[in-house]
Structures are given as structure tokens and as C-alpha cells.
Specification:
By secondary structure, the protein is an all-alpha fold. Helix content is about 70%, strand content about 0%. It has one domain. Bound molecules: ligand LTSJ6FE6 and adenine. Ligand LTSJ6FE6 binds next to helix 4, helix 5, helix 8, helix 11 and helix 13. The site of adenine (ADE) has 10 residues, from helix 1 and helix 13.
């Protein structure tokens, strides 16, 4: 059975700034875009559980359904130019709903943070009368919550103890946000939009986007499971895949399957890259791909 959504459910670019409801719905659909994609190295899809024993596609479906109101709510907070503390409280409550829906499994913690902030930025841009474009959304995020994100990232980076990112001097999700999501805006979105414009299928375009992100993101999940060497090997595997022509190259999809099998054998899972792909799919739904 096809896992693609019926066309009628897929909004394309909006001619006027999208409502908070449309912004939030696009986030839920973008999480589905990511889940439905296969192959994805080590990640859960409708085909298999990748490197995971504690979750499958049903767990992800329960999670994204539990989160659907959250994305609308945080877009509304953005539209009201709410302070960062209100976004944070909304995100923490959403994490709790996710946990309840999945029986305590961490499916979308990163997406709650990254996509939540992006929905807030889109809500703020609407209020500011700006069109939904990647650059205007990035500017809105920085203008309204950039200082708070930087202060928060600084606070987290100076905490004692040793999460993977701090131990290895890697850029965490919080730092990505404080910098205005450089991997999303400078790598993921340009790769996805360029691939679609080149005429790649949605599947090929998303596979290439995921690998382009894996090649450069300091994914804390890879570092957590495989150590710094696991992260670096995964980045190299992604670069090799792209250098050989990516998904649309000869044997491209089979090569992506082979990387998936390698990651499963090593129990590696690029969860941060998966979230970044979902964020790029959301951007395509909100902004379209026209220049
Ligand atoms: C802000 C927090 C979410 C934490 O942020 P922090 O910066 O401290 O932590 P990170 O570890 O860097 O990232 C947190 C999650 O974000 C994803 N991620 C990883 N690396 C990056 C990156 N470089 N850039 C962007 N995003 C990144 C990732 O989430 C995905 O993977 C999760 C699944 O992982 P998995 O390994 O399978 O499962 P685990 O249970 O974790 O491990 P195992 O035991 O199985 O091995 C899944 O969640 C994906 O989404 C990182 O996990 C947080 O501290 C916070 O404050 N939350 C409150 C909400 C809030 O403040 N919101 C603000 C307004 S929205
Ligand atoms: N499809 C997926 N599989 C595993 N971890 C993820 N984190 C976000 N999406 C994921």
C-alpha cells in the first residue's frame, strides 16, 4: 500500500501569509513526510524500525497525532509575539503529551523544539505582514527570540556534566537554534528546493536532503550511540553517497539502502538529521520552491 498522502491533503505554497492553523498542519504533515520516506539510514520508516528496538512507525504516528495541536498553538503564540518563556512552556507541555502517547519513548523531542520554533517564527512573520519565505522566517526567529535563544544556549553549554555535544565540542540543537539554524537554512532547504526544481521525485529529493544534512550536522544522536568516530564515519558515508551522484545517480537508491543496512548493523540513528529533513519539508509546504 502506498504511504503517500492524498494530493488534496498536501498544501502547496501559500499566496498570502498562512494562518496559524495552516502553519501547524504543515508541521504535522512534514513529520509524516519524514516518517514515510525510505530508505533513511538507521531511522524508523513504514518499511522497518532501522536501529531502534523500542519504537516503530506506529509509535511515530501516535506521537505526531498527539503533537498536532501543539504546532498550531505555538504558531498562535508566535503570532501574538509571545515571550520565549511562553514558547518554552508550550514545548515542555508538548514533550509531556508526546511521552504519554508513546509510553515514554523519545520520538520527536528534537522536532518539538526545532519545528516548534519555526512555527512560532512563521506566526510572527504573518503578524509582521511578511511573506512566508525561508529568509523572512529566519529573520523573524532572530528578531523575536534570537537573544533568548542565545542566552539559553550559553546557559546549557556551560552546565557541568557531559552530554555528547559538550564533551566533543559539537553544536547541539540549542546552539543550532541560537545561530538561526544554519544547517537547515544553508544546507537542507537549498538542497531540497534545488532537487525539486531539477525534477527529482519527492522521494529522491528528500533522500538527497537527508544525506546532505547528515554530511554536515553535529547530530547528537550519532555521537551518543557511536561516539565521535561514529558521527564522523556517518558524515563521511553521507559525503561519499552524494559524491557518487546521490539518489538520482546510477544505482543511487540501492546505495542509500546499503548505507541504511550499515547503520542498522552499527545501531546508528541520525535523529537530528531526520528532524532537519522534516523542517525542510515543512518549509517547502509553507513557502513553495519558487525562487
Ligand atoms: C532543547 C532540547 C530539545 C535539548 O536540546 P540540546 O541542545 O540540549 O540537545 P541535543 O541533544 O543537541 O538535541 C535534542 C534533540 O534534537 C535532535 N538533534 C540532535 N542533534 C541535533 C542538532 N545538531 N541540531 C538539531 N537537532 C538535533 C534530536 O532529536 C531527534 O532524535 C531523537 C531520537 O533519538 P534516539 O537516539 O533515537 O533516542 P534517545 O531516547 O534520545 O536515545 P537512545 O536511548 O534510544 O539511544 C528524537 O527526539 C528526534 O526528534 C535530539 O534528541 C530540550 O532540552 C528542551 O529544552 N526541551 C523543552 C522544549 C523547549 O524548550 N522548547 C522551546 C520552544 S519550542
Ligand atoms: N524516523 C525516525 N527514526 C528514528 N528517530 C527519529 N527522530 C526523528 N525521526 C526519526
Amino acid at each position: 500500500m502506498s504511504t503517500a498522502l492524498p494530493l488534496a491533503l498536501i498544501p502547496t505554497a501559500f499566496s498570502s501569509p498562512p494562518s496559524s492553523h495552516a502553519i501547524g498542519c504543515a508541521a504535522t504533515l512534514a513529520l509524516y513526510d519524514e516518517l514515510a520516506l525510505a530508505p533513511k539510514p538507521g531511522l524508523v520508516s513504514f518499511v522497518d524500525n532501522g536501529s531502534h528496538d523500542d519504537m516503530d512507525a506506529h509509535t511515530f504516528m501516535r506521537s505526531l497525532i498527539a503533537l498536532r495541536h501543539y504546532f498550531v498553538q505555538i504558531a498562535e503564540l508566535g503570532e501574538a509575539h509571545a515571550p520565549f518563556k511562553a514558547l518554552e512552556a508550550c514545548g515542555i507541555a508538548a514533550e509531556a503529551r508526546m511521552s504519554e502517547a508513546t509510553g515514554g519513548v523519545n520520538t520527536h523531542r528534537g522536532a518539538v523544539f526545532t519545528l516548534g520554533l519555526l512555527c512560532a517564527a512563521a506566526g510572527a512573520a504573518r503578524r509582521d505582514g511578511e511573506p512566508a519565505r525561508p529568509a523572512t522566517l529566519r529573520t523573524a526567529l532572530r528578531r523575536h527570540w534570537g537573544d533568548a535563544l542565545q542566552a539559553r544556549s550559553h546557559r546549557i553549554s556551560t552546565l557541568p556534566g557531559g552530554i555528547a555535544a559538550r564533551r566533543h565540542g559539537l553544536r547541539s540543537a540549542s546552539q543550532e537554534a541560537a545561530l538561526g539554524f544554519p544547517v537547515l537554512f544553508d544546507t537542507a532547504v537549498p538542497t531540497l528546493f534545488r532537487s525539486v526544481r531539477r525534477g527529482l521525485s519527492p522521494e529522491q529529493a528528500r533522500v538527497d536532503t537527508l544525506f546532505a544534512v547528515m554530511a554536515v550536522l553535529d547530530d547528537s544522536n550519532l555521537a551518543h550511540r557511536g561516539g565521535i568516530q561514529g558521527l564522523r564515519n556517518a558524515q563521511q558515508a553521507a559525503r561519499d553517497f552524494l559524491a557518487k551522484g546521490g539518489a538520482a545517480g546510477q544505482g543511487g537508491m540501492e546505495a542509500a539502502h546499503a548505507v541504511h543496512r550499515d547503520f542498522v548493523a552499527l545501531r546508528l540513528s541520525p535523529g537530528g538529521a531526520a528532524d532537519t529533513l522534516a523542517a525542510a519539508c515543512w518549509m517547502q509546504r509553507i513557502c513553495g520552491v519558487a525562487e
